[in-house]
Amino acid sequence: MSGRAPLMHCPYCQAPAFETTPQCPRCGFSLERVGSFYGVMPRLEVGLSDLAGLFRPRDARRIADATARLRDHFPQVSMSIVTTRLEPAQPLTAYAFWVFNRGGICRDLSRGGKSRDLLLTLDAANARASLMVGYGLEPFVPRESLQDIVNQGAPHFARDRWVDGVVAVVDAATRTLQQVFAGLEKTYGLDMVSLHQAEAPAEPSARPGVY
């Protein structure tokens, strides 16, 4: 195996870059600069951070039930949802990258390849959604699969049916991971039940792959 750093995509311009590169070689984007673009980091929580005020208590319970179903299947996977309201010129993927790395949603114990976090970020002002995964899931859930997952919620988001969209995305992510691990079991003969038990519960990681 190569020792080269994982390949990612710049969250601002989407150009290919390596995780260890301090700034994007095409546009100059860097994590150190992005905070000045979005202001003060909001207070966030693992799970649901409804900064845009989209959800009622019963909506939050539906979302919690959906993420609980995901964790029932994959105890080592953590999923958070953040809602916000951005200006049209503010890229959602760059905001999500900033939140994932600096928002305190992902803790530091299991960094790098053990990162199995998912972050769904919703821009209520512009009906936009972004889904990011950590490096531990990146080899198994490519960009195309992430887009397919987000597309399950897109019709709901376009109609301001935010809770329906979030549940659709979480359930689609669960199905995708089930298909991924079923394929690994078949191809490599892995006992995924034992793997889940051996690795869970693990601290989430703060190092995402960026899409």
Shape field: globular
**Category from helices, strands and their pairing:** alpha/beta
* Average of the residue pLDDT scores: 77
- pLDDT under 50 segments (min length 5)? 1-7, 192-211
Series of H and E elements: EEHEHEHEEHHHE
* Count of spatially separate domains: 1
Number of strands: 7
Helical residues, percent: 40-55%
Strand content: 15-25%
Order of adjacent strands in the largest pleated sheet: 3-4-5-6-7
Work out the helix count.
Answer: 6
- Tell me the major beta sheet: 5 strands, mixed
Task: Chart the SSEs and their pairings.
Layout (H helix, E strand, L loop, with lengths): L6 E3 L6 E3 L12 H8 L9 E3 L6 H17 L4 E7 L7 H11 L14 E7 L4 E7 L8 H16 L3 H27 L3 H8 L8 E2 L2
Helix pairs in contact: 1-3, 2-5, 4-5
3D architecture notes:
- This protein is an alpha/beta fold and 211 residues long.
- Strand 4 (78-84), helix 3 and strand 5 (117-123) form a beta-alpha-beta unit.
- A five-stranded mixed sheet has the order 3-4-5-6-7, with helices on both faces. A two-stranded antiparallel ribbon has the order 1-2.
- Helix content is 41%, strand content 15%.
- The protein is built from six helices and seven strands.
- The longest helix has 27 residues, at 162-188.
- It has one domain (39-200): Diaminopimelate Epimerase, Chain A, domain 1 (Roll).
- The chain is globular, with a radius of gyration of 17 Å.
